[in-house]
Amino acid sequence: MIEYFSSNLWLVWTAVCVLALILEVSSGTFYLMCFALGAAASIVVSLFGTPLWLQVLVFAGISAVCVFCVRPFAVRYLHSHHDDRPSNADALIGRKGVVIEAIAPGKPGYVKVDGDEWKAISDEPVAVGTEVRIISRESIIMRVVKA
């Protein structure tokens, strides 16, 4: 069996390539994709009957080039939209809600936004049932103005 694989190293490189692709699908880091590309290059080189040391050198070289040159561009291109999207409480800024507990200057109340209740403050008095817009947040307290 070992003799068969040593004379057909392209099968070993194919197994490495497929395994790296399967693991890449589960991780999404693009590191294993680089190793899959290195293994694919080694498949091509092994088909010409080159020695194992040269195949390993091609694998390591192509993988390293991909990690340092190709991966940063791929990550930047594929994950570019994630940096601009606000999350958690920051996503509430600009949203509208309804006052469920009156807000007085210097005394917080509560607003309901999309079914969630948030402590809120305002520079002017706001009565229960008034629609407000969130303009900023200070920790978990929302600053609101009448909508």
UniProtKB/TrEMBL annotation:
Domain of life according to the entry: Bacteria
Protein's name according to its UniProt entry: NfeD-like C-terminal domain-containing protein
Organism of derivation: Hallella multisaccharivorax DSM 17128
Keyword line: Membrane, Transmembrane, Transmembrane helix
Stretch forming the signal peptide: none
Entry annotated with the keyword Transmembrane helix: yes
Membrane topology: Multi-pass membrane protein
Cellular compartments annotated: Membrane
Annotated TM spans: 6-23, 30-48, 54-75
Keyword Nucleus among UniProt keywords: no
